[in-house]
Amino acid sequence: EVQLVESGGGLVQPGGSLRLSCAASGFTFSSYRMSWVRQAPGKGLEWVANMKQDGSEKYYVDAVKGRFTISRVNAEKSLYLQMNSLRAEDTAVYYCVRLGGTEKEGGYFDFWGQGALVTVSS
Amino acid sequence: DIQMTQSPSTLSASVGDRVTITCRASQSISSWLAWYQQKPGKVPKLLIYKASTLGSGVPSRFSGSQSGTEFTLTISSLQPDDFATYYCQQYSSYVLFTFGPGTKVDIK
Questions:
Q1: How close is the nearest chain A Cα to the Cα of B11, in Å?
Q2: What is the pLDDT of residues B30-76, one digit of tens each?
Q3: Residues of A in contact with B45 (CB under 8 A)
Protein backbone atom coordinates (compact mmCIF):
# COMPACT_ATOMS: atom_id res chain seq x y z
CA GLU A 1 0.00 0.00 0.00
CA VAL A 2 1.34 3.39 -1.01
CA GLN A 3 1.74 5.74 1.94
CA LEU A 4 3.00 9.30 2.13
CA VAL A 5 3.31 10.81 5.60
CA GLU A 6 4.16 14.49 6.05
CA SER A 7 5.65 16.05 9.16
CA GLY A 8 7.18 19.33 10.23
CA GLY A 9 4.24 21.67 9.93
CA GLY A 10 3.44 24.28 12.54
CA LEU A 11 3.21 27.95 13.42
CA VAL A 12 6.00 30.24 12.25
CA GLN A 13 6.43 34.01 12.23
CA PRO A 14 6.61 35.96 8.98
CA GLY A 15 10.15 35.86 7.65
CA GLY A 16 10.84 32.58 9.42
CA SER A 17 11.75 29.13 8.10
CA LEU A 18 10.28 25.67 8.27
CA ARG A 19 11.22 22.31 6.81
CA LEU A 20 8.59 19.79 5.79
CA SER A 21 9.38 16.09 5.49
CA CYS A 22 7.54 13.32 3.70
CA ALA A 23 8.17 9.65 4.42
CA ALA A 24 7.22 7.34 1.56
CA SER A 25 6.48 3.62 1.67
CA GLY A 26 4.78 0.93 -0.36
CA PHE A 27 6.44 1.76 -3.69
CA THR A 28 9.88 2.19 -5.26
CA PHE A 29 10.42 5.82 -4.25
CA SER A 30 13.49 6.31 -6.43
CA SER A 31 11.44 5.55 -9.56
CA TYR A 32 8.95 8.40 -9.23
CA ARG A 33 8.95 12.15 -9.60
CA MET A 34 7.52 13.78 -6.46
CA SER A 35 5.80 17.07 -5.84
CA TRP A 36 4.44 19.35 -3.15
CA VAL A 37 0.94 20.78 -3.58
CA ARG A 38 -0.62 23.26 -1.16
CA GLN A 39 -4.09 24.44 -0.27
CA ALA A 40 -4.74 27.65 1.62
CA PRO A 41 -7.68 27.57 4.07
CA GLY A 42 -10.94 27.52 2.12
CA LYS A 43 -9.11 27.86 -1.21
CA GLY A 44 -8.19 25.69 -4.16
CA LEU A 45 -5.17 23.54 -4.92
CA GLU A 46 -1.83 25.04 -5.97
CA TRP A 47 1.14 23.06 -7.24
CA VAL A 48 4.30 24.24 -5.45
CA ALA A 49 7.33 22.23 -6.55
CA ASN A 50 8.36 19.16 -8.54
CA MET A 51 11.51 17.06 -8.49
CA LYS A 52 12.89 14.44 -10.85
CA GLN A 53 13.74 10.98 -9.57
CA ASP A 54 17.49 11.58 -9.31
CA GLY A 55 17.19 15.18 -8.15
CA SER A 56 18.70 16.55 -11.34
CA GLU A 57 15.66 18.69 -12.17
CA LYS A 58 13.62 20.88 -9.86
CA TYR A 59 10.75 23.17 -10.75
CA TYR A 60 8.78 25.71 -8.72
CA VAL A 61 5.70 27.88 -9.00
CA ASP A 62 6.72 31.53 -9.39
CA ALA A 63 5.28 32.46 -5.98
CA VAL A 64 7.91 30.42 -4.11
CA LYS A 65 10.96 30.64 -6.39
CA GLY A 66 14.04 31.68 -4.47
CA ARG A 67 12.40 30.97 -1.10
CA PHE A 68 11.49 27.27 -1.18
CA THR A 69 13.76 24.32 -1.98
CA ILE A 70 12.58 20.80 -2.76
CA SER A 71 14.96 17.91 -2.10
CA ARG A 72 14.93 14.17 -1.64
CA VAL A 73 17.01 11.31 -0.22
CA ASN A 74 16.11 8.19 -2.15
CA ALA A 75 17.97 5.86 0.20
CA GLU A 76 15.72 7.09 3.00
CA LYS A 77 12.58 7.27 0.82
CA SER A 78 12.12 10.84 1.92
CA LEU A 79 11.05 14.10 0.30
CA TYR A 80 11.64 17.52 1.80
CA LEU A 81 10.52 21.11 1.36
CA GLN A 82 12.69 23.80 2.91
CA MET A 83 10.66 26.98 3.23
CA ASN A 84 12.44 30.27 3.95
CA SER A 85 11.29 33.90 4.15
CA LEU A 86 7.77 32.69 4.87
CA ARG A 87 4.85 35.02 4.28
CA ALA A 88 1.27 35.05 5.52
CA GLU A 89 0.14 33.96 2.06
CA ASP A 90 2.15 30.74 2.43
CA THR A 91 -0.30 29.60 5.11
CA ALA A 92 -1.75 26.34 3.80
CA VAL A 93 -1.94 22.59 4.10
CA TYR A 94 1.04 21.18 2.23
CA TYR A 95 0.57 17.80 0.55
CA CYS A 96 3.35 15.43 -0.48
CA VAL A 97 2.26 13.92 -3.79
CA ARG A 98 3.49 11.21 -6.14
CA LEU A 99 3.44 11.81 -9.88
CA GLY A 100 1.84 8.93 -11.73
CA GLY A 101 2.50 7.67 -15.21
CA THR A 102 5.63 7.44 -17.31
CA GLU A 103 8.05 10.24 -18.21
CA LYS A 104 6.24 10.56 -21.56
CA GLU A 105 2.66 10.36 -20.36
CA GLY A 106 2.76 11.24 -16.69
CA GLY A 107 2.21 14.33 -14.61
CA TYR A 108 -0.97 13.61 -12.76
CA PHE A 109 -0.97 13.20 -8.99
CA ASP A 110 -1.95 9.64 -8.17
CA PHE A 111 -1.19 9.39 -4.44
CA TRP A 112 -1.45 12.11 -1.80
CA GLY A 113 -0.31 12.36 1.79
CA GLN A 114 -2.64 13.57 4.53
CA GLY A 115 -1.03 16.98 4.54
CA ALA A 116 0.85 19.20 6.98
CA LEU A 117 -0.55 22.55 8.09
CA VAL A 118 1.79 25.51 7.93
CA THR A 119 0.58 28.71 9.56
CA VAL A 120 2.55 31.91 9.07
CA SER A 121 1.46 34.51 11.60
CA SER A 122 2.85 36.83 14.23
CA ASP B 1 1.93 30.04 -18.34
CA ILE B 2 -1.08 27.85 -18.99
CA GLN B 3 -4.23 29.03 -17.22
CA MET B 4 -7.15 26.78 -16.38
CA THR B 5 -10.75 27.89 -15.90
CA GLN B 6 -13.71 25.87 -14.68
CA SER B 7 -17.44 26.35 -14.95
CA PRO B 8 -19.64 26.56 -13.11
CA SER B 9 -17.98 27.49 -9.82
CA THR B 10 -20.90 25.98 -7.92
CA LEU B 11 -23.48 23.50 -9.09
CA SER B 12 -26.60 22.45 -7.20
CA ALA B 13 -27.96 19.03 -8.14
CA SER B 14 -30.06 16.15 -6.88
CA VAL B 15 -29.26 12.49 -6.45
CA GLY B 16 -29.71 10.79 -9.80
CA ASP B 17 -29.00 13.92 -11.86
CA ARG B 18 -26.56 13.91 -14.76
CA VAL B 19 -23.87 16.45 -13.92
CA THR B 20 -21.38 18.10 -16.26
CA ILE B 21 -18.39 20.24 -15.28
CA THR B 22 -16.28 22.08 -17.84
CA CYS B 23 -12.59 22.95 -17.72
CA ARG B 24 -10.84 25.11 -20.32
CA ALA B 25 -7.12 25.52 -20.95
CA SER B 26 -5.66 28.81 -22.17
CA GLN B 27 -3.66 26.93 -24.83
CA SER B 28 -3.33 23.45 -26.23
CA ILE B 29 -2.44 20.80 -23.65
CA SER B 30 -3.16 17.80 -25.88
CA SER B 31 -4.95 15.33 -23.59
CA TRP B 32 -2.78 16.00 -20.56
CA LEU B 33 -5.58 16.73 -18.14
CA ALA B 34 -6.60 15.15 -14.86
CA TRP B 35 -9.67 15.48 -12.64
CA TYR B 36 -9.72 15.23 -8.85
CA GLN B 37 -12.48 14.97 -6.25
CA GLN B 38 -12.07 16.52 -2.82
CA LYS B 39 -14.53 16.18 0.03
CA PRO B 40 -14.46 18.65 2.97
CA GLY B 41 -11.52 17.97 5.27
CA LYS B 42 -10.26 15.16 3.04
CA VAL B 43 -7.36 14.60 0.68
CA PRO B 44 -7.93 15.06 -3.06
CA LYS B 45 -8.53 11.85 -5.00
CA LEU B 46 -7.53 11.21 -8.60
CA LEU B 47 -10.60 10.46 -10.73
CA ILE B 48 -9.45 10.72 -14.34
CA TYR B 49 -6.15 11.24 -16.17
CA LYS B 50 -5.21 11.76 -19.80
CA ALA B 51 -8.60 13.44 -20.22
CA SER B 52 -10.65 10.25 -20.23
CA THR B 53 -8.83 7.39 -18.46
CA LEU B 54 -10.51 6.36 -15.22
CA GLY B 55 -8.29 6.16 -12.16
CA SER B 56 -7.98 3.00 -10.13
CA GLY B 57 -11.19 2.09 -8.32
CA VAL B 58 -13.16 5.03 -9.69
CA PRO B 59 -16.83 4.21 -10.41
CA SER B 60 -17.87 4.03 -14.03
CA ARG B 61 -20.48 6.77 -13.56
CA PHE B 62 -17.56 9.18 -13.87
CA SER B 63 -16.31 9.94 -17.36
CA GLY B 64 -14.11 12.51 -19.07
CA SER B 65 -14.10 13.89 -22.58
CA GLN B 66 -12.36 16.55 -24.63
CA SER B 67 -12.98 18.92 -27.49
CA GLY B 68 -9.86 20.91 -28.31
CA THR B 69 -8.94 22.86 -25.19
CA GLU B 70 -12.30 22.24 -23.53
CA PHE B 71 -12.57 19.28 -21.19
CA THR B 72 -15.65 17.83 -19.54
CA LEU B 73 -16.19 15.73 -16.43
CA THR B 74 -19.54 13.96 -16.41
CA ILE B 75 -21.22 12.12 -13.58
CA SER B 76 -23.95 10.07 -15.22
CA SER B 77 -26.11 9.62 -12.13
CA LEU B 78 -25.12 11.67 -9.09
CA GLN B 79 -24.79 9.66 -5.90
CA PRO B 80 -24.79 10.94 -2.28
CA ASP B 81 -21.05 10.22 -2.08
CA ASP B 82 -20.38 12.53 -5.04
CA PHE B 83 -21.15 15.83 -3.33
CA ALA B 84 -17.69 17.39 -3.30
CA THR B 85 -15.42 19.88 -5.01
CA TYR B 86 -13.90 18.88 -8.34
CA TYR B 87 -10.62 20.23 -9.73
CA CYS B 88 -9.03 19.88 -13.14
CA GLN B 89 -5.24 19.93 -13.57
CA GLN B 90 -3.09 20.29 -16.66
CA TYR B 91 0.26 18.53 -16.99
CA SER B 92 1.26 19.26 -20.56
CA SER B 93 4.93 19.84 -19.70
CA TYR B 94 5.36 17.19 -16.96
CA VAL B 95 7.27 19.77 -14.94
CA LEU B 96 4.93 22.73 -14.46
CA PHE B 97 1.36 22.13 -13.40
CA THR B 98 -1.79 24.19 -13.00
CA PHE B 99 -5.07 23.45 -11.29
CA GLY B 100 -8.43 24.91 -12.15
CA PRO B 101 -10.20 26.94 -9.43
CA GLY B 102 -12.63 24.12 -8.62
CA THR B 103 -16.34 23.36 -8.97
CA LYS B 104 -18.37 22.66 -5.86
CA VAL B 105 -21.25 20.23 -6.32
CA ASP B 106 -23.80 20.61 -3.56
CA ILE B 107 -27.25 19.33 -2.75
CA LYS B 108 -30.16 21.06 -4.45
A1: 16
A2: 999 999 999 999 999 999 999 999 999 999 999 999 999 999 999 99
A3: 112
